[in-house]
Inverse folding.
């Protein structure tokens, strides 16, 4: 009887975990504490076996020194960061976005008729398409130049987001009406309609690459939900610093429900909406920040 | 261990141990070992003698060994060992010449040539007047071996020796000039033709001459020659054909005098069992002579491993008359040969048989073997017409990635440029989001807007294609955006810098570098600078450096120049390459900075780039690089100086005097030869037809 594919040698010991974890941190700034040992073992054992390696120390050495180590590290990070998500997640926040933030932006951006939203850590694109649907539904931006930029560190997730095809489980909180109007059923699942697809752009981006990342350009809103949990404090500060640079004055930063900027920065102001607390870049930046940038 | 031991291995070890003995005391032992009956002991002794250089006691003993002796092994080993003593050996051998017998003087000539010292030339010159003709011949041969060290002087001496009384000396001189690659004028060759002693050598010289007047004489020689003379005549015909189209025509014109029997005899030579390269030379000669029977036999040789390369060259000479046969060969061959045959047929085709090649290529588009499809793309790019655009497009869409896809896109681009209207129709039929978008993108890139509407509409179409799930569609669209986009394309290209596919990202970087406003302003420069300064993706950074260079914009110089001086070696080499697009006045000083880089590869890249500059100061820097600690830098510097010509012989000779690395010495010798203006024919030595 086969009890499992993991050989007795394939268990991830504390030292091996630390080596792998530090390597991932060094490369991508993603921080994992000891609780993630099981996650590492479960998600990386397949790669270790596929490469014909006997143990995780061998896998670590492969990542570090093998000519293909860089590509394999990307693969490892992909596996470690892939998360399950779905459309219209955290509905209360989306309502706040739809009902209060979008109308305000429609007003403030009226002259330039441009709107840009960045879904940072977009995984397989559910959040970006949700935002796109909300923008289209609002009917506030007809004939505007609107853009939703989705970025993720995981290459496979970005490719999947670009395809925009989802299974039933992605629609657990989506109304049938929305699904029927914004998705077309095909052999592989439900595909986003061209009208929503055409305002979405996807790319692979390590948020640790810094605030100078060009991809998103200057944006009005940043969604970064359940991503900061992967970073340690130092890296979070760096990522938030980058968001600050990318946001236009008055732009919004929307974090996950368990995330906050407490102890990270005072550059943003807290904004109390009816259904949520969100962060906003002051219209005139704090003098000390402006000077230091 | 003893030099007198019975076991040769023990004697060899005893000889090897002499390295650690004081040279004065080691000399007798070295000489004993050099005269040993076992070649391994002698070889070891030669190495030991070289290691003891320049010990005077050893040198004296070696020169003494040239004297009369029954021990041939010792004399030959002494000649070999003397080479390591350089200029000292020349002086010592010169001083002892008078006391040597004829055999000793002959060996002395050989020893002098092996020293590769320019000072050996006057000594050898005196041996030319030696009463023993064998010594004089040895001196001529030694001079030709020494040629590189004093090319000009040696050439003059050898030319003068063509008038020597002794036929053997004349023959040796002609051979020597051949080895040096000297091309004699036709008038001189014509005078020598009547000299029966030099007949085979004169054939070779005529082949190298590149003079069309040689053609009838060579054809006549192969018509009546046999054995070695026939083979020499065939080699000469091939050599003459290789010197140019006019010469090839002259050979083929002269071949008209060959009768059926003579032609059959030449044809048979290809299949005659023979040692060496006779079948290969005969096959090449069939092509050079353009005989009517040649195409069939040459095409058969495409399947013979030993003759395949020669067959391709012979087919080039046969030209379009071989096309039908080559296409027939393609039909019955396995995929790799089929692909190669299609490629050959295209090269050979002319207007009258282009339709035949086109038809074969269109059929080959359906082939199941990718390499055949690639060959078909290449063929249609040359012989296709507007009606073939759809077939090319359909075929390339079968290959989502890789080199076949790229070959298809290249063919499509070439055809679109030549047949604009059908290409535009094809592009207009592409549905947005469909795979055909990539086809439209290629056409838009080549023809420029408007293709599907206005410039803005073309840009919008391409920008929408960047959302495609197919990387090749995104890549093709980016290439088109970079070519035609203007300011409207900046944002879509910038977004694609973060594409999940590296290939697409790199294309986006390239597109940024090419993007220009209507006024010619480089639009993507700020983005490229940010990428170089902050991207964590090393390949993107390197590509961005190249793209910065391609802009030739002054604002890129402050980014590139520091990298040349002290960057990561890979980035430094790329930065040097990037500087290539700037005018010489702006890149020269930056390239000089590269010569101080700690990494040898960077120094070499900088030297090569400086080799493209016309500023006279490069000579000074190349001269300095001759003393670089890395041997490959010194070798490159020598090569570059050789190419420069002018007053560079002095530093080269100075370096040759102290250089120990054999490859650098060879490069310096080659450079000196070039500087002296020695002209080389395509085939400087016998039997060196391949590799070319």
């Amino acid at each position: 009887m086969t009890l499992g594919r993991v050989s007795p040698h394939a268990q991830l010991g504390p030292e091996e975990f630390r080596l792998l974890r530090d390597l991932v941190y060094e490369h991508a700034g993603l921080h994992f504490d000891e609780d993630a040992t099981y996650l590492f073992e479960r998600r990386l054992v397949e790669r270790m076996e596929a490469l014909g390696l006997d143990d995780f120390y061998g896998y670590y050495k492969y990542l570090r020194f093998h000519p293909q180590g860089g590509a394999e590290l990307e693969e490892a990070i992909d596996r470690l960061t892939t998360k399950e998500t779905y459309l219209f997640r955290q509905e209360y926040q989306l309502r706040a976005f739809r009902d209060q933030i979008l109308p305000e932006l429609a007003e403030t951006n009226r002259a330039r008729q441009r709107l840009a939203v960045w879904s940072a850590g977009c995984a397989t694109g559910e959040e970006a398409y949700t935002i796109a649907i909300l923008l289209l539904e609002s009917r506030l931006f007809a004939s505007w130049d609107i853009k939703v930029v989705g970025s993720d560190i995981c290459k496979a997730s970005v490719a999947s987001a670009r395809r925009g095809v989802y299974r039933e489980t992605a629609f657990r909180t989506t109304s049938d009406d929305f699904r029927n109007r914004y998705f077309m059923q095909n052999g592989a699942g439900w595909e986003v309609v061209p009208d929503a697809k055409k305002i979405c752009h996807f790319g692979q981006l390590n948020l640790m690459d810094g605030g100078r990342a060009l991809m998103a350009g200057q944006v009005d809103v940043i969604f970064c939900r359940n991503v900061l949990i992967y970073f340690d404090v130092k890296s979070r500060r760096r990522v938030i610093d980058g968001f600050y640079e990318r946001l236009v004055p008055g732009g919004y930063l929307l974090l996950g429900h368990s995330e906050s900027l407490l102890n990270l920065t005072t550059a943003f102001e807290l904004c109390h909406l009816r259904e949520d607390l969100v962060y906003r870049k002051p219209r005139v930046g704090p003098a000390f920040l402006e000077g230091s940038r | 261990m003893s030099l007198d031991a019975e076991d040769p291995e023990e004697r060899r070890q005893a000889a090897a141990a002499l390295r650690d003995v004081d040279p004065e005391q080691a000399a007798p032992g070295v000489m004993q070992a050099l005269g040993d009956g076992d070649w391994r002991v002698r070889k070891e002794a030669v190495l030991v003698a070289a290691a003891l250089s320049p010990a005077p006691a050893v040198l004296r003993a070696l020169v003494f060994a040239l004297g009369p002796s029954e021990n041939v092994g010792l004399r030959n080993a002494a000649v070999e060992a003397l080479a390591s003593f350089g200029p000292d050996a020349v002086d010592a051998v010169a001083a002892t010449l008078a006391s040597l017998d004829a055999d000793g003087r002959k060996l002395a000539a050989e020893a002098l040539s092996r020293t590769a010292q320019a000072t050996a030339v006057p000594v050898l010159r005196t041996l030319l007047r030696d009463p023993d003709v064998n010594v004089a011949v040895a001196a001529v041969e030694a001079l030709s071996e020494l040629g590189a060290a004093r090319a000009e002087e040696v050439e003059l001496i050898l030319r003068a020796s063509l008038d020597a009384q002794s036929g053997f000396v004349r023959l040796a001189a002609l051979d020597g000039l051949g080895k040096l690659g000297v091309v004699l004028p036709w008038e001189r060759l014509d005078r020598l033709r009547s000299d029966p002693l030099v007949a085979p050598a004169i054939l070779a010289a005529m082949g190298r001459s590149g003079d069309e007047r040689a053609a009838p004489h060579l054809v006549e020689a192969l018509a009546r020659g046999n054995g070695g003379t026939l083979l020499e005549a065939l080699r000469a015909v091939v050599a003459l054909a290789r010197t140019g189209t006019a010469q090839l025509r002259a050979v083929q014109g002269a071949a008209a005098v060959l009768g059926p029997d003579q032609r059959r005899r030449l044809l048979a030579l290809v299949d005659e069992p023979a040692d060496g390269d006779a079948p290969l030379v005969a096959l090449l000669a069939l092509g050079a002579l353009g005989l009517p029977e040649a195409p069939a036999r040459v095409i058969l040789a495409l399947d013979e491993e030993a003759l395949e390369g020669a067959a391709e060259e012979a087919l080039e000479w046969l030209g379009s008359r071989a096309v039908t046969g080559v296409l027939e060969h393609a039909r019955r061959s396995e995929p790799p040969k089929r692909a190669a045959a299609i490629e050959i047929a295209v090269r050979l085709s002319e207007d009258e048989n282009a339709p035949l090649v086109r038809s074969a290529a269109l059929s080959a588009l359906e082939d199941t073997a990718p390499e055949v499809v690639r060959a078909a793309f290449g063929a249609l790019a040359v012989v296709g017409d507007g009606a073939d655009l759809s077939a090319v497009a359909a075929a390339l869409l079968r290959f989502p990635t890789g080199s076949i896809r790229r070959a298809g896109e290249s063919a499509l681009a070439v055809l679109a440029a030549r047949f604009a209207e059908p290409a535009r129709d094809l592009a207009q039929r592409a549905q947005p989001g469909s795979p055909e978008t990539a086809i439209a993108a290629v056409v838009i890139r080549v023809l420029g807007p408007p293709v599907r509407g206005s410039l803005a509409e073309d840009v919008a179409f391409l920008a929408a294609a960047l959302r495609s799930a197919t990387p090749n569609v995104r890549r093709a669209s980016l290439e088109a955006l970079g070519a035609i986009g203007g300011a409207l394309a900046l944002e879509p290209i910038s977004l694609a810098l973060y594409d999940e596919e590296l290939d697409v990202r790199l294309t986006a970087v390239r597109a940024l570098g090419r993007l220009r406003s209507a006024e010619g302003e480089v639009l993507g420069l700020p983005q490229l600078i940010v990428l170089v300064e902050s991207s964590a993706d090393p390949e993107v950074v390197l590509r961005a450096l190249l793209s910065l260079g391609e802009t030739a914009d002054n604002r890129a110089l402050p980014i590139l120049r520091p990298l040349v001086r002290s960057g990561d070696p890979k980035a430094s080499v790329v930065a040097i390459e990037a500087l290539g697009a700037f005018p010489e006045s702006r890149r020269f000083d930056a390239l000089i900075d590269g010569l101080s880089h700690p990494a040898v590869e960077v120094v070499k890249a900088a030297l090569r780039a400086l080799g493209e500059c016309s500023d006279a100061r490069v000579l000074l820097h190349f001269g300095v690089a001759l003393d670089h600690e890395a041997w490959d830098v010194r070798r490159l510097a020598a090569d570059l100086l050789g190419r420069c010509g002018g007053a560079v012989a002095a530093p080269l000779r100075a370096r040759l005097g102290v250089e120990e690395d054999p490859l650098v010495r060879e490069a310096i010798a080659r450079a000196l030869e070039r500087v002296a203006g020695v002209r080389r024919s395509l085939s400087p030595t016998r039997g060196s037809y391949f590799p070319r």
DSSP finds 42 helices and no strands in chain B.
